[in-house]
Fold:
Amino acid sequence: MGHLPVNPSVNSPVNTGDGARIASSATARTLADPDTPFAVVDVHPMRRNIERLRARAARLAVPLRPHVKTAKSLDAAALLHPGTPCPVTVSTLAEAEAFADGGYTDITYAVGIDPHKLPRVIALSRRGVTLRLLLDSVEQASFVAEASRRAGIPLPTQIETDCDGHRGGVGPEDPALLDIGRILHGAGCLDGVLTHAGESYFAYTAEEQRSAAQHERDTAVAAAERLRAAGLPVNVVSVGSTPTAHAAEDLTGVTELRAGNYVFFDLMMAGLGVCRVEDIALSVVVTVIGHRPEYGWIITDGGWMAMSRDRGTAAQAQDQGYGLAADLAGNLVPGLVMTAASQEHGTLTARDGAALPDLPVGTRLRILPNHACATAAQHGGYHVVDGTRATYPPAPAIETFWERVTGW
Amino acid sequence: MGHLPVNPSVNSPVNTGDGARIASSATARTLADPDTPFAVVDVHPMRRNIERLRARAARLAVPLRPHVKTAKSLDAAALLHPGTPCPVTVSTLAEAEAFADGGYTDITYAVGIDPHKLPRVIALSRRGVTLRLLLDSVEQASFVAEASRRAGIPLPTQIETDCDGHRGGVGPEDPALLDIGRILHGAGCLDGVLTHAGESYFAYTAEEQRSAAQHERDTAVAAAERLRAAGLPVNVVSVGSTPTAHAAEDLTGVTELRAGNYVFFDLMMAGLGVCRVEDIALSVVVTVIGHRPEYGWIITDGGWMAMSRDRGTAAQAQDQGYGLAADLAGNLVPGLVMTAASQEHGTLTARDGAALPDLPVGTRLRILPNHACATAAQHGGYHVVDGTRATYPPAPAIETFWERVTGW
Structure:
């Protein structure tokens, strides 16, 4: 069996029994300290990922509106801008409220509005937040228009436009587009159109991704032009997904670009070629708790509760199981894959004839996730390291802890 | 399209805009009030599920040690006993600490011990909690024995015995069994043996489940007998999983029965025939936010963030997607299945030629989960209803809110 560069002194339980190794978020010093499993963010690839898309959007001359649904953290979002809160996209009103508390004033809630949630929307508007809504039906437009009139606050609202049959939205040729636009405009609520190329997660080549980006742009712009041709004002033409944001070559007519996953990236995005495995900023630290050499298994204390049940790479050319194993410094353990999960157990196996490494009980590993949004959601926050400062051994120092927004 | 017995007045957004319908946990009155998605527990099937296994264990003359990893709630656990905390099983030290705070003093931590966690184990022991550990290697036994000696507290420890190659454990014939037993006994730590027939989740017939239960019992008893024959004391012979606990016919030699999922049950257990769909006590309330009639889709605001990514029924004869849709009273909508999920969107489709029901935007549904443990983990707690008291319309009254234990 091969040997990893794991220094047993880092992970050994020599101090067990005296309580001195109990590490809380406040006292933890390195990735060897907190009890496992826990989520880690490395700000080194994260800053690189953010800069990459920022530069790209600058070249395309389109402002970014990052989607904060992946990290769901004000601390993480602070890396998106130099101190002045930027426009953001959210997936829940809980995120909108937390980001409003954090000083963000331009927020798009990119899930079709449930009329029951309008009181919270109006409460945010009354606090001075520009909360942009999304919808794709005459029913919803009528609710929003009525609520706006009653509240005396026009709620800025975008019409979801479908470019690929992924989930919601009206087609740019759908008669409902103009009906919705007129209802919204009548109440002073029409803000623009929004398109999300969700099927780009299944675009496996650069050419398919470019094509998806082009089609996403064309759909949004066509819908905007159709509304304008009917005399309806369109301020915002919003497009984006992590794959298309990184593939778009021409965004003429688009006013903003959205993407969220890119701050962390994950094995799905690496499988699509949108990033490299070394760009993945999120991982979960787990501990080896057993061995089944007769099956070729290493058992850890990180199961689906820590990784999520997401198996997004199962449909890709390279199925990455529940994730790839790396050492505490983030270096991949060649061929070691988390291939099974129960609630609090993970099973690691060697792939493609790789030797199963000799990892004693107590050894810690970082598991890179299939899907960052889903894995992050299993944790209350992130221990943060900076890969540029890591020396190994000892394990990377923990710089701080970032809390996540939870619930709806 | 067929029509459901959904009373639009319950779900209609007539009060939007005035703030009066914002419902917090404290003020929510019925399932029509809190913003969706949210988790619901119906105590009517839950009490029935608990009574069913209690009566079964009584017939088998074996005490129950319920696993609280599914509900992870002191309030839910209170239904397991008449006021006097019972022995429980936990999947994390966070659960052990929360249940210790709640007065539970006999707790089995049923995940192989990571030596790094021993300080927290010892801290619980010093509080007077009998925290029983699990392990399956000489390495771990040595750590536990050493930590016990240093602390001056023998930590009661069970040897995980493998009956079906599901994950951890030593075989009852493995030489390591006696080596581990001797190390533990030398430190006063040997408490017994524990077996979990995890593969019973793939036992698709009653006969296979009976056989799995018999084999689980035989394995545990054989390991116990082998230890005893070597002069080693065995107090606890623990077996269980939800399928085998409901299938076992003879538990001679077993001292306790574990099961966890049974308090809520789910579509996986229904698919195995361990329960009926109407026994499922956990669901997630979602709201219709759109329609794509051209695809036969109803879109809701409950995606994988609300349901989890668990697709446990995908391997069963009847794949239930991400769950089955019911109305707010819990009556199934015939043939309506949640077949796709993104982070905050669910897609419902009609199965087997069923008519897609006419469900306006704003209509609320309850989605029954594939896997209760995974779905429950996506929520901070449960709104609790009592199906025996439901009248419909109006929607079932919310009796109380139960918080969950989170983290590790």
